[in-house]
Structures are given as structure tokens and as C-alpha cells.
């Protein structure tokens, strides 16, 4: 198969049931976070994911740019990276936030407070190595902590037009319908999460050629961290709603991406998203397409990755069994080649690779 493409990762995060997001951002040094990121990158590649679209360092500054270079120079083994650097939030809307007005805490993304600051930040992130600009189109800053839109449509249009000049895409984190609507009309290429997406919004996305990255595995993991015993307890309301909206998105014909928000859950278990996509109603073969040719096309890399074809980069994996019948087989990776180079597998996996010395 072509190497798999993770559509939404955070190599600088690790599971929140180990250390909370706030504590990762505030108490872990950048050296520690980078050390962790190198092991995350290796685990990702070993799982057959030869490319990741890494959507924000969450407080680790521009260290994704350095990590990407270390991989390109062959210092460490990891996937090809499409990076967002810091990502951009409206001032005061993101975290860490302990609701103490006396504190000015380091933030998980770059804060901007107006159109001028926004455009300056887009230019800065592009100059620091961003392959894609990520905006938080809404966040939990409404009354009573409700998710509410952050940037105006005008602001999003400004950011996307600057990024576009540089040949870069813009992506939006968005949960709310209004945030999604502004992001779509503002010219983003993909919407991440999209919990409140309904028929009207998905139709608009299809019309404007905006793809949808549902990140099913993030919610699935977070609810389990909060105590949901999956398989025993009934499905939480949020999961039932997500299942429904995913099916609605499928019926609407909007382009669906494979991206799980991995980092919220363990790196190297990226395929959790693929299993959930099948569980929520997509055919295994379509899920495999999402994780290869669809992701590569939407991200603008269709001529390089996502298919096995002459002239493209030789990102090739083998799995034991047929994942187009049973998606679980995608986890049985026995061979990984990135850009024509065979990646030596850990000793525990070696015996399964026939003919590899
Ligand atoms: Zn994310």
C-alpha cells in the first residue's frame, strides 16, 4: 500500500491521561517536549504513517520546524511533516486559562488581537517554516465556557489571502456552526473537528470545496479519560451526536479526511481513527482512500504521495492481511519504506518480514 497519511497530529503532545494539556504546556520544558516528539515521530513512522500534517506545537514554539529538519537530515527517523508551527488564536480565547486575571500564562498558540497583528503573525509563521496556517475559528470563551466564534469572517479572509499568496493552505479548528460558516466563507481548505456541522454546513463545505477532518478518535479518547467505560457503559451523548454528524457528512458528499488529533491519544496508534470511521459507518476501502489518496490530494501533495505510481515518492508499506476487508489489519504493519528507503523495524516485528535481512 502507499504510506499512510495522518491528517491531524500533534507530535509535541502526549496523552492527556498521562499529563493534562495545561501541565504539558506549562510544566514540561521544550527540551523534554522535543525529546518526547522524537519518540512520537518514530512510533508514527513504525505504524506505517509516512506523512503527518502536524497542526500546532501547542506551546512548543517553532520546534516542529526543527523536528522536521532533523527528520529530513536523517538524524532521527520520522514521518514527512507538513507543519503549522504555533497556530493562531484570538487573544484571550485559548489556554492555559485558570480564570485568574492576575496571571499572564504562556499560551498553547500565538495570540493576536486585531487584523494587523493577525497578518503580522501569518507572515511570521510562514517565515518560520509553516507549511499551513492554522486558525482557531472558535473556542470555549463564550458565557459559561460555551464554544463561540473568535475571528470575524473578514479576519479569516485576510489570513487565507496572505497564506494563499505564499502557496499555503489555511485550516480552521471549529466546533460551532457559525465558526464553521465564517471559516468556509473565509477561504480555508479544511475544517477540523466540526462537531456542530449540520446538513446546511456540510452542503456549503461541499460547494466551496472545503474538506472535513472529523477527528473522531480525540473525543472517543477524552471521554474515556473522563471515566466512560467503552463497551460497558452506554455511549455518551457526545459520541452519539458525533456518530450522527459523521454519517450526515458522508451522505452530504463533503470530502472526508483521515485525521484523529493523535497526541490526545498515543502516537503510533493513529489507526484508532480509521477503526472508528469504519465503526461509524464508512466502508474500510473508503477509509483507506481517506488515509492515502484523499488526504494527499486535499493537502496539495497528490503528485508526490498517497498512491503507488511511477514518478512519485516511494512511500510504501505492507500489512499482514487485507485491511480493505478488515480495517484492524492496518495495525499489522510489517514493512515500511519512506522515500525509497527501507525503515528497519524493531526486533519484535522483524520475524514477520519475509526476505528482509
Ligand atoms: Zn488538534
Tell the overall outline: globular
Helix content: 25-40%
Number of helices, counting only DSSP H or I runs of 4 residues or more: 11
Low-confidence region ranges: none
Bound molecules: zinc ion
Mean pLDDT: 96
- Largest sheet properties: 4 strands, parallel
Can I get a quick summary?
The chain is globular.
Written account of the structure:
- Helix 4 (115-127) runs parallel beside helix 5.
- The chain is α/β, with parallel strands linked by helices.
- It is 36% helix and 16% strand.
- It has helices at 21-27, 30-46, 63-72, 115-127, 153-165, 177-185, 199-207, 216-225, 237-252, 272-279, 284-299; strands at residues 4-9, 49-54, 80-83, 88-90, 110-112, 132-136, 138-139, 148-149, 169-174, 190-193, 211-213, 316-319, 333-338, 341-342.
- The chain is globular, with a radius of gyration of 19 Å.
- The protein has a four-stranded parallel β-sheet. The protein has a three-stranded parallel β-sheet with strand order 1-2-3. It has a three-stranded antiparallel β-sheet with strand order 12-13-14, with no helix packed on it.
Amino acid at each position: 500500500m502507499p504510506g499512510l497519511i495522518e491528517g491531524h497530529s500533534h507530535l509535541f503532545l502526549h496523552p492527556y491521561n498521562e499529563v493534562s494539556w495545561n501541565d504539558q504546556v506549562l510544566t514540561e520544558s521544550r527540551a523534554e517536549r522535543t525529546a518526547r516528539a522524537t519518540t512520537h515521530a518514530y512510533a508514527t513512522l513504525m505504524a506505517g504513517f509516512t506523512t503527518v500534517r502536524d497542526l500546532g506545537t501547542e506551546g512548543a514554539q517553532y520546534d516542529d520546524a526543527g523536528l522536521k529538519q532533523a527528520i529530513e537530515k536523517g538524524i532521527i527517523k520520522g514521518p514527512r511533516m507538513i507543519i503549522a508551527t504555533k497556530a493562531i488564536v484570538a487573544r484571550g480565547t485559548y489556554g492555559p486559562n485558570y480564570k485568574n486575571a492576575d496571571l499572564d500564562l504562556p499560551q498553547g498558540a500565538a495570540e493576536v488581537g486585531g487584523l494587523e497583528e493577525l497578518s503580522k503573525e501569518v507572515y511570521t509563521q510562514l517565515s518560520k517554516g509553516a507549511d499551513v496556517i492554522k486558525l482557531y475559528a472558535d473556542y470555549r470563551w463564550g458565557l459559561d465556557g460555551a464554544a463561540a466564534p473568535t475571528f470575524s469572517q473578514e479576519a479569516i479572509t485576510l489570513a487565507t489571502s496572505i497564506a494563499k499568496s505564499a502557496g499555503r493552505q489555511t485550516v480552521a479548528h471549529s466546533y460551532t456552526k457559525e465558526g464553521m460558516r465564517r471559516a468556509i466563507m473565509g477561504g480555508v481548505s479544511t475544517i477540523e473537528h466540526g462537531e456542530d456541522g449540520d446538513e446546511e454546513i456540510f452542503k456549503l463545505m461541499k460547494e466551496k470545496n472545503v474538506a472535513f477532518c472529523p477527528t473522531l478518535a480525540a473525543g472517543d479518547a477524552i471521554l474515556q479519560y473522563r471515566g466512560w467505560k467503552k463497551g460497558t457503559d452506554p455511549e455518551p451523548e457526545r459520541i452519539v451526536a458525533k456518530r450522527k454528524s459523521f454519517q450526515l457528512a458522508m451522505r452530504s458528499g463533503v470530502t472526508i479526511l483521515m485525521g484523529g488529533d493523535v497526541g490526545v491519544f498515543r502516537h503510533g496508534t493513529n489507526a484508532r481513527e480509521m477503526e472508528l470511521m469504519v465503526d461509524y459507518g464508512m466502508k474500510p476501502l473508503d477509509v483507506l482512500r481517506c488515509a492515502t489518496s484523499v488526504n494527499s490530494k486535499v493537502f496539495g501533495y497528490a503528485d508526490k504521495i498517497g498512491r503507488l505510481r511511477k514518478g512519485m515518492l516511494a512511500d510504501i508499506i505492507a500489512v499482514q492481511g487485507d485491511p480493505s476487508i478488515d480495517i484492524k489489519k492496518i495495525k499489522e504493519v510489517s514493512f515500511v519504506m519512506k522515500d525509497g528507503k527501507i525503515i528497519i523495524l524493531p526486533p519484535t516485528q522483524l520475524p514477520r518480514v519475509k526476505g528482509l535481512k
